[in-house]
Design brief:
- 0% of the residues lie in helices and 47% in strands.
- The chain is mainly beta.
- The chain has a single domain, classed as Rieske [2Fe-2S] iron-sulphur domain (Rieske Iron-sulfur Protein, 3-layer Sandwich).
- The strands form 3 sheets. A 4-stranded antiparallel sheet has the order 2-3-4-9, with no helix packed on it. A 4-stranded antiparallel sheet has the order 5-6-7-8, with no helix packed on it.
- β10 and β11 form a beta hairpin.
- The chain binds FE2/S2 (inorganic) cluster.
- FE2/S2 (inorganic) cluster (FES) binds next to loops.
């Protein structure tokens, strides 16, 4: 059953940036866009197992550091190949300066 997990503080992520969050053997990417919206996706690229936390956030997209696939942070959809499988995304809410993710 899904539960809300405290992932980080809102200020732990710079604007247009991403951090890695590991929990119970799973890894996630927590992303802050240019308008201070927060998103959570799977932490590994769907093309190869590369951490997206090393990638580049531009507005509400994230670019994989290895082969430059671009994903929509909100929907997880692939915008640019070579990745062809979308990322899973997870609900995010802010509470008292904390970023909570539903996993
Ligand atoms: S590993 Fe991400 S695009 Fe290849």
């Amino acid at each position: 059953m899904a539960q809300w997990i405290d992932a980080c503080g809102v200020d732990d992520i710079e604007e247009e940036d991403v951090i890695r969050f590991d929990h119970n053997g799973r890894t996630f990417a927590i992303i802050r866009d240019h308008e201070n919206n927060y998103y959570c996706t799977d932490g590994l690229c769907t093309h190869e197992d590369v951490h997206l936390s090393d990638g580049l956030v531009v507005e509400a997209t994230i670019e994989c550091p290895k082969h430059s696939s671009i994903f929509d942070c909100k929907t997880g959809e692939v915008e640019t190949p070579p990745a062809c499988e979308n990322l899973h995304t997870y609900a995010v809410k802010l509470d008292g300066g904390r970023v909570l993710i539903e996993i």
